[in-house]
Amino acid sequence: MNPASYMNLRRSATIFIGLLVCILLAFIEVKAESQISKFTSAQQQILKSIAPAKIIYLGEIHNSTTDHADQLAILEYLRQQKSKVPLAIGLEMFQKPYQPIINQYLAGKISEEQLVEQTEYQKRWGWPWENYAPLLRFAKANQIPVVALNTPTEVLRKVSKGGLESLQPADFQYIPPATEIDKSNLTYRDLILESYQQHKAQALATSPDFDRFYTAQLLWDETMAATASEFYKQHQTQLVVVAGQSHIRYGYGIPDRVSRRLAKTMLKKSVILSSDETWGKSIADFLFRPIQKKEPLLPN
Which residues contact 275 (CB under 8 A, 6 or more apart)? Predict the structure, then answer.
């Protein structure tokens, strides 16, 4: 092949590859638009507003099938954005010691059944696996990291019964130092007291002493916030944190504690998925969907 023919062939190949890339990008854009079209115009605007955020909090009701469907659709929408920043998912539903097991599942080294068994999911979380299985399958299929955010049950039980002073040095392996347990938000304390009284009336309180119950709740929040912050510092991904509404409302649980650890000016957005129409807008940056009265929901 003479040099002129080679150059023509190379030029044609470059043009062909360029056209192929343009077609692929157009396909992705159409697919993303079809995904967002599933939502109302108000919800579409919310998606466009949260898309640039570095950290996005999705506050769920654990037994809401609507919330779980919305989570998956939101994640799919974010994945399809043109941003070069990779996506990661932080889950309250898994406890920190089991991060290596999650990594093995995502790498295809163990099955979904082994993931459930080896993370002791049923014992440590207990909500139906099918509520969260689609998120894990989605992450695996798209090579998206999943971060186990939660505090080990054993540590929370110790604090509920005996306070932070009951912990041994080994107990701090998966939790932040006791000095990072911020108790300064008295409004949050009042909200937790209200929840505690409801649980106590239903014989569901994990501690007979409110101060210890409160400390355990704060440890829960601080551990998830510390884990999310550390992951973001190390990987600089767009991190979507999925947790119960009580950890997201007003920013008091996880969001404010992440902001304490990261730059306060960094763009972060909170979304309450199932929202009571009587709630004020200050409860989160966005209220995604009114609670469907026909769906029996449990507090979390």
Answer: 283, 284, 287, 288, 289, 290, 291
Q: Are 184 and 128 in contact (CB under 8 A)?
A: no
User: In the 3-class helix/strand/coil scheme, how is 11-75 assigned residue by residue?
Assistant: HHHHHHHHHHHHHHHHHHHHHHHHHHCCCCHHHHHHHHHHCCCCEEEEEECCCCHHHHHHHHHHH
In whole angstroms, give the CA distance from residue 271 to residue 56. 8
Which pLDDT score, from 0 to 100, does residue 23 have? 42
Instruction: Give the pTM.
Output: 0.84
**Amino acid identity at 115:** L
- Give the pLDDT confidence score for residue 11 in this predicted structure: 59
CA–CA dist 52, 110 (Å, integer): 34
The per-residue pLDDT for 198 is 77
Q: What angle do CA 149, 155, 161 make, to 5 degrees?
A: 135
Tell me how far apart the alpha carbons of residues 90 and 146 are, in angstroms, rounded to a whole number: 6
pLDDT tens-digit profile of 7-22? Answer: 555 555 445 544 443 4
Q: Could you give the CA distance from residue 258 to residue 246 in angstroms, rounded to a whole number?
A: 15
pLDDT digits (tens, 9 = 90+) for 261-288: 998 788 999 999 988 766 666 899 999 9
Average pLDDT, the chain: 86
Residue 97: name the closest of 125, 126, 120 by CA. 120
Beta bridge partners of 90: 147, 241
What tokens does 137 get?
């399958």
